Structure prediction request, 159 residues.
Amino acid sequence: MKNIFTMLMLTITASLMAQTHEITKHDGKTMDVNFIKTENNLVYYSTAESNEEKKISQFAISQLHEKSKKEAKTISEKITLSGKVDYPKVIILKPYQTEGLKESGVITSFLGRTKGETNQSFLDQAEKRLKQNAALKGSQFIVIISDKPKELKAVMYTY
Prediction:
């Protein structure tokens, strides 16, 4: 009777601890997780080893597979860049949205400010310049660190 009870408890515990989803990242890696939610361009999940809530950028994830239904949901499309002309595809992220992406370097640039130019116009030109430099180097994501006229600086991220 004791053995039957133990086996029953192990079966129930194993089914509760089973991973319900599989995350496929753009770099080809997969992770078995318990999906929690998606919020602010982040996917929240927990692993079997711990119930701690972890997060990863939705831009790093290709698909989320629900194991029980054999369904796959596309989270984000992979961005491919073929040079400077693809700069509109480069995405500007906030620092907290880079979980799961790899830092690939820092880019700097100089952009002179013309007399009478508005702040918004200057910021638009600065973003465009940084995106062009990132696209040229093959990085799909940037986090702008500094947007001062003599010191444009961004951190580049890739899959």
In short: The domain at 84-158 is CATH 3.30.1660.10 (Dodecin subunit-like). Residues 119-137 form the longest helix (19 residues). The longest strand covers residues 30-39.
